[in-house]
Design goal:
Blueprint: H1 2-11, H2 30-36, E1 43-49, H3 55-61, E2 75-77, E3 86-90, E4 93-94, H4 98-107, E5 113-117, H5 119-123, E6 133-135, E7 145-147, H6 154-165
Parallel strand pairs: 1-2, 1-3, 3-5, 5-7
Antiparallel strand pairs: 4-6
Bound molecules: iron/sulfur cluster.
Iron/sulfur cluster binds at residues 52-53, 55-56, 90-91, 118-120, 125-126, 150-151.
Length: 169
């Protein structure tokens, strides 16, 4: 235990020292910002993996580690779509996940926003033309925000989410 305390004192606080995204966050469309006004700058997110390689998820999960610590900005992961404000969808929509995606979308209360995370969710990425893929996310449910990348870095995801939470003037 003393070894751990000593190490923590030596390293110091790592939260907030992450490198900012090199690419600027995508412009967030005004309609999505208008919808999030009701959320009062907090955002409960439900993740849905519709057939990704898991790398996008891992980057999304990294938002909750001590370096990015997205919860300090009011962004947290909801345990059920019924408690979520936003759906973050990763991967192309596979045949097996098409119905599940539509069900989750239906279960999420309005107003809600849908974020397509990663190239696969936006346009099927490297899985384009696969026999197991039925299309990108927006072919099945309306998408409000797209965060490109293969996978997008946590800093890019965080910047896009923070932009969404900024009050509109
Ligand atoms: S965008 Fe890249 S990292 Fe994300 S699911 Fe597709 S292949 Fe994997």
């Amino acid at each position: 235990m003393f070894r751990i305390i000593k190490k923590s004192l030596k390293i110091g606080v790592v939260t907030g020292q992450y490198r900012r995204a090199e690419k600027p966050a995508l412009p967030i469309i005004q309609e999505a910002k208008d919808k999030t006004k009701l959320f009062k700058r907090s955002l409960a997110i439900r993740e849905v993996d519709t057939g990704s390689c898991n790398a996008c998820e891992m980057e999304m999960n990294a938002l909750l580690n001590p370096v990015y610590d997205a919860e300090r900005f009011g962004i947290h992961i909801a345990a059920s779509p019924r408690h979520a404000d936003a759906l973050v969808v990763t991967g192309p929509v596979t045949v097996n996940m098409e119905r599940a995606l539509k069900d989750v979308h239906k279960q999420t209360p309005d107003p809600k926003i849908v974020i397509a995370l990663g190239d696969c969710a936006i346009d099927c990425g490297m899985f384009k033309n696969s026999y197991a893929v039925t299309g990108p996310v927006e072919r099945h449910i309306p998408v409000d925000i797209r965060i490109p990348g293969c996978p997008p870095r946590p800093a890019e995801i965080l910047e896009a989410l923070s932009e969404l939470r900024k009050p509109t003037v």
